[in-house]
Amino acid sequence: VANEGGKHWTVNEVRALIRIWSDKNIQQQLEGTVRNKRIFEQVAARLQKFGIDRDWKQCRTKYKNLKHEYKSVKSAQDSGSTSKSMKFFNELDAILGHCTMEQASKSDNDESERPPEWTEAKSGKDSIG
Q1: Domain Myb/SANT-like DNA-binding spans what residues (predicted)?
Q2: Measured in Å, how far apart are the chain's first and last C-alpha atoms?
Q3: How far, in Å, are 74, 93, 101, 112, 128 from residue 109 at the CA level?
Q4: What is the pLDDT of residues 79-124, one digit of tens each?
């Protein structure tokens, strides 16, 4: 299946992209700007070092698609649905999870960091059914 960025991304290519994306420096740059061509040119250059030949547009498209998919899975989970999932959810949650909650960045994606209201609300919903 080809996306608009050309050939389909392999699992290893996506992993490499996520590894670069998880760099705090890259994250800070991405959070601070909408015009991010320069940042994705850096990302593409770093992928080259792994032997992955992608241009900045392909990297940006994949980044946007992963982010969008993550958000839709995350909101489904937050509403109590477990039917939606995606391949790289945990890796992306480690990167994007902190955007919604500042304390989460203190621990590495530790479940116990969630505010008690969340877990109570979820278990409350389950026991009604």
Answers
A1: 7-95
A2: 40
A3: 14, 8, 11, 9, 29
A4: 988 888 899 999 999 998 865 444 333 333 344 444 444 444 444 4
Which residue type does 57 have?
K
Please report, as a single letter, which amino acid is at residue 106.
K
Cα dihedral 82, 84, 86, 92 sign: negative
* Measured distance CA(89)–CA(28) in Å, rounded: 20
Q: Is 109 exposed, middle or buried (0-12, 13-18, 19+ CB in 10 A)?
A: middle
Judged on CB neighbours under 10 Å (0-12, 13-18, 19+), 88 is middle
In the chain, where are the structural domains located?
11-97
Q: What is d(CA 6, CA 77) in angstroms, rounded to the nearest whole number?
A: 31
